Amino acid sequence: MAYFDKRYHPPGTAPGTLAGDDSGAATVHLMDYSPDRLAERADATVAECTPALHQDQTVTWVHVQGRPHPELLQEIGNAFGLHHLAMEDVLNRGQRAKVEDYGGQLFVVLASPCWHDSGEGVRLAIEQVSLFLGDHYVVSFAEGAEDPFEPVRQRLRGVVGRFRRAGADYLLYALVDLVVDQGFPALERLGDELEAVEDVVLDEADGRASARLHRLRAAALQLRRALWPQREATAYLSRDETALVHETTRLHLRDCHDHAVQMIEMLEAYREMATHLLDVQLTRLNHRLSESMRMLTIVATLFIPPTFIVGVYGMNFDPDASRWNMPELAWPFGYLFAWGVILMTIGLLFWWMRRRGL
Amino acid sequence: MAYFDKRYHPPGTAPGTLAGDDSGAATVHLMDYSPDRLAERADATVAECTPALHQDQTVTWVHVQGRPHPELLQEIGNAFGLHHLAMEDVLNRGQRAKVEDYGGQLFVVLASPCWHDSGEGVRLAIEQVSLFLGDHYVVSFAEGAEDPFEPVRQRLRGVVGRFRRAGADYLLYALVDLVVDQGFPALERLGDELEAVEDVVLDEADGRASARLHRLRAAALQLRRALWPQREATAYLSRDETALVHETTRLHLRDCHDHAVQMIEMLEAYREMATHLLDVQLTRLNHRLSESMRMLTIVATLFIPPTFIVGVYGMNFDPDASRWNMPELAWPFGYLFAWGVILMTIGLLFWWMRRRGL
Amino acid sequence: MAYFDKRYHPPGTAPGTLAGDDSGAATVHLMDYSPDRLAERADATVAECTPALHQDQTVTWVHVQGRPHPELLQEIGNAFGLHHLAMEDVLNRGQRAKVEDYGGQLFVVLASPCWHDSGEGVRLAIEQVSLFLGDHYVVSFAEGAEDPFEPVRQRLRGVVGRFRRAGADYLLYALVDLVVDQGFPALERLGDELEAVEDVVLDEADGRASARLHRLRAAALQLRRALWPQREATAYLSRDETALVHETTRLHLRDCHDHAVQMIEMLEAYREMATHLLDVQLTRLNHRLSESMRMLTIVATLFIPPTFIVGVYGMNFDPDASRWNMPELAWPFGYLFAWGVILMTIGLLFWWMRRRGL
Amino acid sequence: MAYFDKRYHPPGTAPGTLAGDDSGAATVHLMDYSPDRLAERADATVAECTPALHQDQTVTWVHVQGRPHPELLQEIGNAFGLHHLAMEDVLNRGQRAKVEDYGGQLFVVLASPCWHDSGEGVRLAIEQVSLFLGDHYVVSFAEGAEDPFEPVRQRLRGVVGRFRRAGADYLLYALVDLVVDQGFPALERLGDELEAVEDVVLDEADGRASARLHRLRAAALQLRRALWPQREATAYLSRDETALVHETTRLHLRDCHDHAVQMIEMLEAYREMATHLLDVQLTRLNHRLSESMRMLTIVATLFIPPTFIVGVYGMNFDPDASRWNMPELAWPFGYLFAWGVILMTIGLLFWWMRRRGL
Amino acid sequence: MAYFDKRYHPPGTAPGTLAGDDSGAATVHLMDYSPDRLAERADATVAECTPALHQDQTVTWVHVQGRPHPELLQEIGNAFGLHHLAMEDVLNRGQRAKVEDYGGQLFVVLASPCWHDSGEGVRLAIEQVSLFLGDHYVVSFAEGAEDPFEPVRQRLRGVVGRFRRAGADYLLYALVDLVVDQGFPALERLGDELEAVEDVVLDEADGRASARLHRLRAAALQLRRALWPQREATAYLSRDETALVHETTRLHLRDCHDHAVQMIEMLEAYREMATHLLDVQLTRLNHRLSESMRMLTIVATLFIPPTFIVGVYGMNFDPDASRWNMPELAWPFGYLFAWGVILMTIGLLFWWMRRRGL
């Protein structure tokens, strides 16, 4: 698993060069709405999108799902007047969340985290979402296979309310809000995984838990890289720095920023928790080691010296050769004497161990 | 135990959607006072609260205890003109402490920590308190089962003093002060628990202390997430950014902010102490391990080689087969010779151990 | 030992409530001076202090030593017009250092650290000093048993110089300077203790050092909580934010702030040193463990297998039962053959150990 | 390997002293272009560069590859009016990235990291790139053996486009962009190396991995020292603080700054990952130690006491000497009794071990 | 070795008190220069310095080497109008680097680090340098035995150039530059020492390295305390906050500030490296421990059970007493049977060890 999925052009490439090896598996979805009417077209072509753009009374939303072919991107860029540096950022995924103001056009990059369950455990993926806000249009790009913006379309198709009456900036808010809020389930999952590891660590102090914990820490690091810049981006949008976003939308974006800040605090708490867990595991391993060591020390200390003593009386020196050769063997109470020596030795060792605080 | 209790709507939900699975076990308490008179009604309905609101000369305090049903919340929202984003925050508990200014209405979120003694040890819970301040009314929401604001009511019911004469902003201050000060007993408890663990760690270096310490660290992390944003919120209130809070109340809110800052410093000190304790425990475990190891090494090093020697003279080679077969067994001083070899070996090993600094 | 000595009122108490269980063992000391004359009275009553206050030409200094009874405090508060929130802070000791400006009156809280030698080792205590500065008076409160301000009185009683000619703000400076500078001997002591522990750790790697180190770290944490806010407080005083402090006194307070900053840097360095020492101790314990392990491994590896071999030839199988039963025992060179096997085994094990890098 | 390659003059040397032991292996490359024409000269002399400088309609780019001799540098300095402090920084390599504004001339220092594969593993080298921007000229210095700016020359030699039409500031941007973007492959390599170590750590917990990890951490530290100041430098260039850089170029430099920020975030994540890995390795080593300890403890605890028992019945006390001497040996069921004692002992030890949680 | 060499007056001393136990081993060096002429006098008296001061056309530089006696300092203070708080700082060495502006006089404190090779290893000393800048004079104080400013005097005595023509502020710059740049060799030495320890740690994992590393970390901490405030001081000087320093000198001081910043970055990198090294050492010690443990476990596990088995057949139960007493001893293939049991046991243990991953 690569730590981070970041694409870049070779150093020295001209700025705004659009190049990529991804054959364009992208689809274009067009939505054009005003309080009165709503037109929608799945699998549209760029040519079909252009007329909608020229109608000032409607909000035009062009969504590109998947990784667009450089040529498709260039075509869209020409139609909507996207800046070449921004288009380069759409292709070179792994960008950090940001807001760029290209005079009259706002370019927003966001990161959408989601967990994938694979055979060898869960894995976190960060997908880039790019949004362009113009006067009465929004162009959005989402990387993955599944279209994340379906709930927004449902709300647009529903009863005519605040959403349909509001401008393109409110659409931008709805998309940003959806992407930012995807952090909550991702964090919840992280928390669940951490608690599962915590149970293992506190109950068994299993060695494999450290590998699992390591993977969660890597995921938390990925999440951090995705969520921190999002905080800045939403802060930028909720401050009054651009004329494209209206006051009431800005209030909603402030709520969005609030969520981004909450997520970061939860994430930092999880990260700290993971570090704590590794410390606890190390301490528990040491404790277990210390315990088996103590048992070994007690047994070995009490029995190795007596084994030496009985070894002595197992020697085969010939008592007949001289009276100095193992006279104890022939003593009437030799055996009892040996047992006396053994028990006294064990007693002494026991006393010594206690005194040393074992 | 879930690390954090945070509710959120599924990403893509329309902003201001009020939805919740909590059947409304909430009660509404009304208090309406001026220097001259005081009206109070427990278990009120929203309809009963509205007339009080229209009287400009009195301060109206509506308190909702428990988790209100979305419909009840909507009703209160309509009566007092609460912002839909703020009402969403009341329902989605686990919000970070904050102050939002919705032009003419101040929305304050605070976190109230308390310890619960359960069977498996103490547990920290963070309850959300939400306050709305209008021109001459305060609407408050508290999550738990018990009404925390009874002491404030007692003071209102008592002698007519500064409190009854002051406006709604002073009531807000009294509520904020009470919630913020609940951090002190929570921190004191944390400190007591830490000291109890400290005694265990310094006296016995018990392995179970690490699990207990881990739980305290998790609680400290929870407290941190609750108390830090409170600092910002009280700072906001004590700065002159809103016309709703008067100068004299602001002086009192500065005192409140002061408490919030003190708590954070105490908390950070406790957190550091807990980290220190884990370090100390690891060191002590290592020390104990090192001590049992030394004892084992001394005993095994001194007795394993002599045991080999006595084993040699316990072999049964037939001295009659040739004169090379264990002639020592028949030496007149063979036994003493063997003891000599043994004692010399022990002496050498002892000298070697000393030299190696054991 | 409680980590921190912090008093607070139960949450919900009315602000400015003065309550305490300390029976008033406090004494009041009055000093009233101008360049021309100096009046001094120990164990004064509040009534005796009031006339001095009404003389504008003199500087009146009222010092309260010990923990004043709430009634005494209220009496002083009435005489000098002290703010009720400030008086609450005087009673609720354990406040963080701060400066509050109550329009026309400056309230300064400082922390004075000192070491106490008790039976079980040194212990750090933090005592609160509270100062009120008015137009031509200073009211000071110091917690401990001993009056810390005697050196300042000596200077006032001495030759008539800058001090006697300057106003109440210079007296405030002298008191602040004295309290702040008490950090230097406290830090010096901390440094001495740390060096003593360092000697133990580097020489013996004794396990008890970790408990001692832990107590020093706890003391450093206490000191930190006392000294950090002092930095802000002296910075506030040395900036020109209040009309009560004159330009020349401010220059002296800047010097005082400088000392506060120096102390913090020394303290942080000590804290880091203490952390280093624990790391070093852990490493040394591991090293010692590793060394005894090596010795044990060498001895056990070289002697356990030969002990098995000599055990084999100590078996009592009957060679007469068949020619397969231990024929070696009857070989003419059987004993030498056994020694050969033993020495070869030891040689092989020795070579194996070397190759494994032991 | 020296941690950092930093040159400095002996303290007390006059500022602007140009001295160095590097014999000037530097080559000068001249490029002079306008939309209409392009002149290029490799291995130019300073004299050949001067005429181009005096033509205001063209952009003159003088590139010095290698470490210039102080005399050559002085000559260039005189021709282009370079500040003596800036020239000193060109010679004293190991400067931190920065932008200095010498009124009418901008001096930019950047750091270009690259990995070298040597026999004993990979090694990171940081090369200094110095750029001077004047009204219509750029002077660049690059330290290494290979000219990094060839891709930029290719783009200049290609079709006449934005680049040829833009001024010297756009050339500066192109060079800065190239140098900054060289951080991406360097970081990618660091990530690859870390993943390789991760595999080793998680699979085998090999001890040599710690040395490898240490080298990667040292490299990450080097990278950090190179990349952090680059962030400030690019931020300075992309803010409108100097008249030398035009608005459109500034937009491109903002993109460049964006890359610098991204790199730092990637780097910090890698650094943290490396720290995690060392923690994991320590935990795994402890786990393995704990596991072998357990096995040893089980075997030794179960077999050492029985070995003592069989040793007892291997003693040679003479049963004929008295009836107290080892009567068991002559019991009809003595052998079975001994086995009974042995098995009971093993059983008891087994039960004891289980109870102690081994 | 005391961690820090900091002198302070007892708390409560009057400000500006000059007291010290250092008998004045200080010498005064006078230099008085203009573009036209240069007067120099070693071992001057204060009286000899005063006339030079009254000549406005020359720059007067009075340098005091060593620790001046309080009386000498007072005399100089009177002659040059030094502020009494500044003079106190000159005596109370161990001040943090700073710049104080006493209206018309600038007081600069700097720290000059140098390494001393003593018998028990290298040791870092921090010496305080104090500088006063007036309109056309500089008074400098340096603590050590050796005069550090000789190179500056050489430059003044040399050809008449920028230095002689510039004012007193340029002299101040030259002195500040020299003191600041002394950080480079000190850091280089620290780096060399660290690399030497690194070699030891990576090659041998010697336990003594941790004490050496500890001393280097203490030195790095000292350096940090010296260099960090220097950054602020040079930043202050290079900003246009005082009329005493001219624009061109300020440009040079900015260069000086640049060096201070570089040093801090190098230092922080070294400090981190030292921390890494301790981690690596701990890991390697654990690895070595784990390795010897494995060897011991393999040998003991394989040979302790067989030793028990051969012990069984070394028991002396009388086969004649009954047919239950060790019938195996008389079996024709008893010996081979015993070997079979032994080899099977070893095989089983080997298989068990493999399965447990040892």
Automatic annotation (TrEMBL), chains A, B, C, D, E:
Keywords: Cell membrane, Ion transport, Magnesium, Membrane, Transmembrane, Transmembrane helix, Transport. It comes from the Bacteria. Residues 1-21 are annotated as: Disordered. One of its GO terms (molecular function) is cobalt ion binding. It is found in: Cell membrane; Membrane. GO terms for cellular component: plasma membrane. CDD domains: TmCorA-like_1. SUPFAM superfamilies: CorA soluble domain-like (SSF143865), Magnesium transport protein CorA, transmembrane region (SSF144083). It is a multi-pass membrane protein. It catalyses: Mg(2+)(in) = Mg(2+)(out). Mediates influx of magnesium ions. Alternates between open and closed states. Activated by low cytoplasmic Mg(2+) levels. Inactive when cytoplasmic Mg(2+) levels are high. This is Magnesium transport protein CorA. It comes from Alkalispirillum mobile.
